[in-house]
Amino acid sequence: MYGKIAAFGLLAVANARPAVTVPLSDVVHSTVASVASTAMSAATSTDAAIASYSTGAGIGATGTGTAGGAASTGAASYGAKFPLSNGFPNVQVPSSQLDTIEQQAHGTLPGPNGAPPTGLHDDTINSLAFIAFNELFEVSFFSTLVADISASKPGFTAGDIAPADRDTVLANLKVIVAQEELHALNALGAFNANTGKTIEPCTYKFPVKDFKSAIALAQTFTDVVLGTLPDIQTVAATAGDIGLIRPVGSVIGQEGEQNGFFRYFQGKVPSELPFLTASARNFAFNAILQNFIVTCPSQTLDFLEKPAGGIPLNETGVLTVLTKGLALEDVTAKFSFSTINPSQTKSYYESKKSSLGFITYVNQQNAPVSIKIMPDDIINISESAVTFKASFPGQSKFLNGLTIAALTRTGDHADVDSVAADTLFGPGLIEIN
Ligand SMILES: *[C@@H]1O[C@H](CO)[C@@H](O)[C@H](O)[C@H]1NC(C)=O
Ligand SMILES: *[C@@H]1O[C@H](CO)[C@@H](O)[C@H](O)[C@H]1NC(C)=O
């Protein structure tokens, strides 16, 4: 009965090097020169420790000069603007526009007669809002990638895509764009049917400089999506909306197909792990917000952060993984954190330095691992970033695939939900193999 609800869609790929770390924050963070926007300024964290420093300058504005990586020099591609030339996201159900998208997607929106389910619980509606927020970002990302390849922009030519065949890659990406459009329309339609309200898209930018960095980024955010959809199933099951579980499961499989193809195409094992790394809505929300959003209509963020009912999502500060090339080895890694308003970082540190918390790693379906941050671990304090070190037990804990790092208040967590709810700064995303 809730067959209209689908979810994210993406593909993936990655860095062709084996045993290489592709922390999202390294790839993208420092190119987000100013995520600040009037819309985001309105959104305040509900975390007391952070909220008092959240004066609305936005995330990642200037505080990450130490982040380095390709991002600090690479050109940012601006995301495709909505509405797209096919009218998306303003597409009626049914309509000839929708028919065209379904042909391109190799399939249809779920459910009979296109009627979205109504009567969903608050937290499920909040999940729909998050799915729509995520899907709109993905449509913008993949539309931009298709446009860049179609135009043979520098970095996106047949030579840059080789040894893969450029026309095959382009054709596959066009299918994926249409599939993502259907995922988005599905969530937007179900949200509208339950609330009478419309989620407007944000504007986006993507710190990719060429095809390979775009694919690496796509793999990382696909991994986060693959971890987050089971969280959405859990929230729906807890609320009693079990009709959501099957269609979301169908999208988890779909995402996995995309990820496997692109991993293989990049020389990686197609199937990443026996049990994929768990994530949570709040981690996915902050990863998008911190890295890809230029501006959002305030109402769009309010649907997520100040919903009419149920659990709100919360903004967290930024955690950047500074050490490149983390592998399955036990090493000391460097990180930095910045408050939501980066200029408040030093004063936040001064007030908290006697007890800064823990670095917590979430990997696969295992118990999270927490490491206490000691005063000696602090490397540098500037107005906008605090740099510190912490051990990374890559070998002893076998942290293969995606690891989500977070700076948490406490250090004893049973699962990813507990980590997400306890997170002050994060997520920092680490990819091995
Ligand atoms: C600390 O960070 C500031 C600002 O990024 C930088 O200018 C300074 O050189 C750093 N100091 C050390 C010891 O790394
Ligand atoms: C956001 O913060 C509120 C207030 O502390 C809390 O009740 C809620 O569970 C948090 N949301 C998430 C997704 O952790």
Compact summary:
By secondary structure, the chain is α+β, with helices and mostly antiparallel strands. 40% of the residues lie in helices and 14% in strands.
Task: Considering the chains and any ligands shown, give keywords for the structure.
four-stranded antiparallel beta sheet; 433 residues; 14% strand; alpha+beta; disordered N terminus; binds 2-acetamido-2-deoxy-beta-D-glucopyranose; Ferritin
The CATH architecture comes to: Up-down Bundle
Query: For the CA atoms, what is the radius of gyration?
Result: 20 Å
Main sheet: strand order: 4-5-9-8
The ordered H/E elements are HHHHEHHHHEHHHEHEEHEEEEEHE
Low-confidence residue ranges: 1-75
Distance between the termini: 39 Å
Structural class comes to alpha+beta
| Discrete helix count | 14
Strand content: 5-15%
Instruction: Give the tally of structural domains.
Output: 1
- Helix residue percentage: 40-55%
Quick one: overall form? Answer: globular
User: Given this structure, which CATH class is correct?
Assistant: Mainly Alpha
Task: Report the mean per-residue pLDDT as an integer.
Answer: 83
Q: Main β-sheet, in a few words?
A: 4 strands, antiparallel
The count of DSSP E runs of length 2 or more, i.e. the number of strands, is 11
CATH superfamily membership: Ferritin, core subunit, four-helix bundle
CATH fold label: Ferritin
Bound molecules: 2-acetamido-2-deoxy-beta-D-glucopyranose
Keywords: Signal
Protein name: Sexual development protein
Describe this structure in words.
Keywords: Signal. This is Sexual development protein. Residues 1-21 form the signal peptide. This protein has a 4-stranded antiparallel β-sheet. It has 433 residues and is of the alpha+beta class. It is built from 14 helices and 11 strands. It has one domain (1-433): Up-down Bundle (Ferritin), CATH 1.20.1260. The chain starts with 23 loop residues before the first helix and ends with a strand. The longest helix is centred in the middle third of the chain and has 30 residues, at 166-195. The radius of gyration is 20 Å and the shape is globular. The model is unreliable at 1-75 (pLDDT under 50). It has helices spanning 24-28, 38-42, 48-51, 70-73, 96-105, 122-150, 158-161, 166-195, 211-239, 245-265, 281-291, 298-305, 345-352, 416-421, and strands at residues 77-78, 203-206, 293-295, 318-321, 330-338, 358-363, 369-372, 378-381, 386-393, 401-408, 423-432. The structure holds 2-acetamido-2-deoxy-beta-D-glucopyranose (2 copies).
